[in-house]
Amino acid sequence: MKRLALLMLLFSSILVPFFTFAQDTNSTNDLVYQKKTTARVTFKWAVKEGTLFVNLSAPTTGWVAVGFEPTMMMKNADLIIGYVTGSEVVIEDHFGVRPTSHVPDVDIGGTNDVTVLSGSEENGTTTLRFSIPLDSMDTFDRKLEKGETYKVIVAYGKRDDVASYHVKRGSFKIKL
Ligand code: HEM
Question: Ligand 1 centroid to 53 CA: how many Å?
């Protein structure tokens, strides 16, 4: 009986680490994120096989957004904007049509290329997790390439209304 218990213990100590490892490689846990914080918005990103994975958070119960490569303020930026309301996570692919306004890509003949992974609103902080293709082939998205440097803009608002003005906004450069 004692020998059987010992054998089972030995078996589980070999198998448990194996299953934990197998699980990790199948999940997104193997992504290595880089991080930038400005204007109280934290932008974390990781690239894997043609896809950009993003984890975006700000101290708000309203909208949070990130944009790539604007030409003037928000104009021509490839924007991803979203919010959490109850159990619903809304994340949309937008384009900066003017220095201070943006619209969904789908409203101007483009495509919605964002994949919603998850979102949360906890203790006054909204976190959005999503992915976008590095090259969606949509004219209203920026083609991104690993190793290149890009201007990134971030902002958050206090309402679940993506057309509302920001509380804070900022920008920085990243090397993908
Ligand atoms: C409809 C919604 C929005 C309106 C009405 C708006 C309006 C404005 C206005 C009036 C300014 C100049 C004044 C200031 O600095 O506050 C500005 C600047 C800025 N906005 Fe927005 N904005 C909107 C959404 C966004 C979004 C979604 C982002 C980013 C992801 C963003 C990023 C910025 C940045 C980075 C600046 C500074 C630009 C610079 O100094 O070159 N805005 N916005």
Answer: 24
